[in-house]
Amino acid sequence: MANIKSAKKRVITSQVRAERNKAIKSKVKTYIKKVEAAVAAGDKAAAEAALTVAISEISKATSKGIFHKNTAARKVSRITKAVNTLA
Which family does it belong to (predicted)? Predict the structure, then answer.
């Protein structure tokens, strides 16, 4: 552990942020899995509903700086493409 007070604060702050980032990334992955599960089941209505929620969560994570904008765009593109393959 650090000796200087500001360094101790930094350690605590970085731990809090890391936990927050991890939780948000996990949440995004869960929503993406829900979309993929609906696509695998062939349920277009459920897939589209899950897609809108997933895109919203990805956008929120990007605005908080958890994902780079290109990463977010790639994730959105992939799940949207998967949903659009359903006829």
Answer: Belongs to the bacterial ribosomal protein bS20 family.
